Amino acid sequence: MRRVAIKLVELVVVVFFVTAITFLLLNLLPGSPALSILGANATPHAVAQLDKTLNLNHPLPVRYADWIGQILRGNFGTSEVDGQPVAQAILQHLPVTLELLVLCQLMAFLVAIPAGIWAGYRKNSWIDRVTTGGSFALLAFPPFIVALLLVYVFAVRWHVFPATGFTPISAGLFSNLRTMFLPAFTLALGSVAIYVRVLRSEIINVLEENYITAARAKGMPSWWILLRHAFRPSTFSLVTVAGINIGFLIGGSFIVEQIFALPGIGLLTVDAIFSRDYVTVQGCILVVAVGFVVINFIVDLLYPVLDPRVRDQRIGRMRVSGQ
Amino acid sequence: MTILRHFTPRVTPTPSVTGVGPVLEVRNLKTHFQTERGMVHAVDGVSLTAEPGKVVGIVGESGSGKTVLARSIMGLLPRQGVFRSGEVLLAGRTISGLPESELRAIRGLEIGMVFQDSMSSLNPVVKIGRQITEGLEYHKGMHTAEARRLSLALLKSVEVPDPERRLDEYPHQLSGGMRQRVAIAMALACEPKVLLADEPTTALDVTVQAHVLDLLKDLQEDRAMAMILVTHDLGVVATRADEIVVMYAGQVVERAPTRVLFREMQMPYTQALLRSVPRIDGPRHATFVTIGGRPPDLTNPPPGCRFAPRCSRAQDRCRSEDPPLTAGRTIGHEFACWFPLGVGSPSREAPLTPTPTPTVGPSAERREF
Amino acid sequence: MTFSSTLAGGDGGNALLVLPDLAGTDARSRRLSVMFWISLGWIGLVVIVAIFANVLPLDSPTAIGNANPGLGPSWAHLLGTDELGRDLLARVVYGARVSLIVGVAATALGVAIGGTLGLVAGYLGGIADVVIMGAMNVLLAFPSLILALAIVTFTQPTLLHVTLAIGILSIAPLCRVVRASTISLSRREFVQAAQVVGVRRRRIIFREIVPNVLPTALAVALVAIPGAILAEGALSFLGLSVRPPSPSWGNMLSEGRDVLAKYPLIALWPSIAMLLTVLSLNFVGDELRGHLDVKEGGL
Predict the structure, then answer these.
(1) Which of B57, B98, B262, C63 is most enclosed, with most CB atoms within 10 A?
(2) Distance from the A276 Cα atom to the nearest Cα atom in chain C, whole angstroms
């Protein structure tokens, strides 16, 4: 419990700084924030109005507190560009990104786990070399190149998937998945490469441990040793990496969203950036950054679940040897 | 998870041990590793036998090849870069050439093994109970409940207190001594005919060592198992082994029934080993007797007796010709030496190797391993 | 697992820094392989060609109207022409310049600032360490590419700003690596010996620690460069780097995307160029790091 409390405090501190910086971003821009929000064509009168509305004359910490207060009440402000409440826009776009991420990670794990285990088990065999070499090469492929390649093959040449566009689930699960497949696959490739490498190297390390030899000495079959003895300890690193990766993908999927025209939060952010919709940008960055921190926090919480040694850390790890 | 039951290997039943003839025979076993520096002759022509109900103690320094020997018997060697020759027979049946799939049926069921460091030989993220029951489920096709009952009984027999609770605990929650007992329980679960114990107490406190060793001996006698006890400590095997095999640099240099060995040891190395065990009734502030020099490099070993560089009795012949194992006076006694110690008990001769004069005062005590 | 304490900044190939996992170094990497030299050769080729682009016998990358659009490879135009009739080979070569400049400069910035911070945090420990690592953690929490995007957009999309933005984002991972290396070195005997003798802190840092951290830092930097190149590629794909008609690999891809069905080759060449360059850099960096680890292990 103590551990959780410490982690919670860390979480709050980091979130504080993240929000503070996000808040400051808007205010660091040259000129009055109101001017930035309204754009260069704003009349001085409008600027003064906005100044008052946003209390821009008050000192920074007060405005920050105000802003946080608003956020916590669910009010992310209103976009000056299209007049929509930002919170609403975020709520509309976030689920799309989440669905994309879920699909992407499912695909990634489905491939990476067996491949990683096998490559680690059959180290230096041809299948290992192919897997390792393949994932190394995959790391060089940025999503925009992969996306173009996939679109060319599967949408232009063979019309299996749509090149762009998004169909919400409400309009039919199958068509929804059809529009999500290529983008999820694009992102999955990058994740697979990372996961396979981590898992393979962990499996190799674990297989050299004494308890694996002891299990072999008991005559246990290889498949059992791999799945029940070797896999579990190897997941610790995998979970860490996955957490970072997923946290990153929340905002990092925007290129894919752009290319495939998926109305996710990445696309929202980018469009907002391009249209100088600062309020929306602020809201989106806030959500994404905080989301990243929270996900890693959750991952941290997972360790005691996975590794029983960590559970008892507060008592002190190992008892003194002796009866 | 009772899924293992469905995969129990079909075993050719090994003829039951009738008490006649050895249950385990090792014939001229060689295990060489291909490394960048050359071929390492870790085990170089070792032969031994183990009889049901008897204990064979294998004694040697680190690097003598005793651990590799134990693993070679079990077939637990890496896949690549290993060269093996010689035979291992279990109750008359050759197991050394068997494919992995068949060896699996033998390990755990016919031969059990206890490792040195229980903290690393028990999986830290798997519960104790599961680590015992998995062997039972796989080899004996038991249901989980049944296996669990049996594990409980096993834990009781190895004197683990509060066994019910322990079954659901993890290795790090137990003390070193308890962990080793669990490891023993694991090895004995399927009632193997032979138990290989590789330095089972080296990682334990001295006070616990005796308990565990006695426990091992009791269990072994109860089940009329053959036991091979590997250790670097002559003291451990002195009272617990029926036969002692002394290994040096991958070879057997002397073997004899225990009493015979202590009475009539012939090989200078054996004597050196004995001398280097500190005695509680020896004179105070005596310099520790050490065996000067280091164990030889096992890569492409030169001809001649391998102990020659460290032996004060070595002559030219020792350095050029490998001494073969020759029979001693008593039956069952063999040794490999051109210039053995001779008849009679180990006398208080001059120290084997000139121990360099300590430069830090007269009562300096050097310890060397 | 020490992963998070060393390289947790490692975002995947999708992002800023491509950092293959540290633990993946096998003992076989004692000698530098054939692939290493091939990769090095390709990098060298790209660098030379990019530097001497002006004096090479290339067509102008921006001149329109000299040739028909969408031509396939021919002797006149080795890689063909794009949708406006510009020579693709020339465009790829000039695009290489952009990628290399940004890649190297941004990484250099990251090494300079991140490395210094890492040294300070690792050597001094205590409050300095907590503050610096805290700052890095906060920095890492932000979606890197979006942040770069924001920085570039809100200022001006010029090469300088792109470099700065990407550079800022490579500070954190490099800081972590240097810090980890510094910490482990500080514990080594030769540093402690210098401390006991009373050598001044600054001297210790420069004389003892920096020379030993440098190889590791450079190896990681070498792997950070392709990440920066990919980031620049992403930004220019979105139109935020050099402005057309100046070519960059990213904006060539973007243009190629628009005509993907008709002239697929336009997107193909910059893709290949970028992939080969990034792959080669990754490979060279990886092998060097494995090489270094082996040497360190032998210490």
Answers:
(1) B57
(2) 8
